[in-house]
Amino acid sequence: MSSQCLADLQQHHTVDGAHWVDGPGGPILEVKTDQCEARLSAYAAHVATWTPTPPGASRPGPGLFCSPRTVWGGGKAIRGGVPICWPWFGPRANDSKPGGTASPAHGFVRTRPWFVEGVAREENGRIQVTFLLVSDDDTLDLWPHAFEARLVASLGQTLAISLVVKNVDDTAFDMEGALHTYLTVSDVAKIRLTGLEGTRYFDKVAGIERVHGREALTLSGETDAVFIGTRQAVTIEDPGLSRTIRVEKSGSLSTVVWNPWLTKATAMSDLGGDAWRSFVCVEAANVAPHAVSLSPGATHTLSTRISIMPSRTL
């Protein structure tokens, strides 16, 4: 697939409210409408920032967190926004170590350039952006399956993102995936998450399986939890910002909640400082035992939808 330079994108994929500029790591799409402001990168099909403007309300502040220390491009994942984890999640199970080295964590699509297939302004004023990635010699060396993947982002007063994967191979393949959404909060230690009550989960920090109680979920240390068999939305109550974030999803049977906390964050060169306090990741995912088996010609869509509402009860 041919590469796209900034001039190509400006000529063919600019609409009212969305234009391409030269940015770190390559072209950046800047979105500014009466519904939201956002920045998207053609590198990794990455929604990096999104700040909604609800009607009749003051701007609520950023919806997505993006680290000011992140590296844009250069084979590194962008720290913040919505990285795409695919076709595996975390360390690769039964890693074949192609080329004699360990496979990249969380798959390979979050560190590759994607093709911009389209940018459109919809009748309702939302901006829709579609990125495309198809298998090539490099991906086949890492993962021997032919595929087409599209990332479709719809940006307005809410944020909707879908990862659409089609198997164009002759045989079925299994895949994991996650939309690794970094959500801005006032202080991760002071928020409450509801919607996961009574749910079984794997605590990756402790290395054991647990069952969450009937109370709201609060975080008090490093958290890396995969909640199993989940379809329901998660709500984040944030008294510090006087708002509630609702994370809905479809095509997903796992929900991941993550924050590195102080010690681990300090060791991360693209985060550092107290930035870990300013986000929580709530991810629509399909992680073992909910890996998706995709037959030849079949398509699977993993989606998330983020909305932010002023809190009336906090």
Quick synopsis:
The protein is mainly beta.
Structure explained in plain terms:
By secondary structure, the protein is mainly β. The protein has one domain: Beta-galactosidase, Chain A, domain 5, CATH 2.70.98. Helices cover 6% and strands 41% of the residues. It has 3 helices and 22 strands. Strands 5, 11, 12, 14, 15, 16, 19 and 20 form an 8-stranded antiparallel β-sheet that branches. It has an 8-stranded antiparallel β-sheet with strand order 6-7-8-9-22-18-17-13, with no helix packed on it. The longest helix has 7 residues, at 6-12. The model has no long low-confidence stretch (mean pLDDT 95).
What is the CATH architecture descriptor? Distorted Sandwich
Write down the overall mean pLDDT: 95
Strand composition percent: 35-45%
Largest sheet: 8 strands, antiparallel
Task: Explain the layout of strands and helices.
Blueprint: H1 6-12, E1 18-23, E2 26-32, E3 36-41, E4 46-52, E5 84-85, E6 115-121, E7 127-134, H2 137-142, E8 147-155, E9 159-167, E10 173-175, E11 177-179, E12 182-184, E13 192-194, E14 200-203, E15 208-211, E16 223-228, E17 234-238, E18 243-250, E19 254-259, H3 261-266, E20 279-286, E21 292-294, E22 299-310
Antiparallel strand pairs: 1-2, 2-3, 3-4, 5-11, 6-7, 7-8, 8-9, 9-22, 10-21, 11-20, 12-20, 13-17, 14-15, 14-16, 16-19, 17-18, 18-22, 19-20
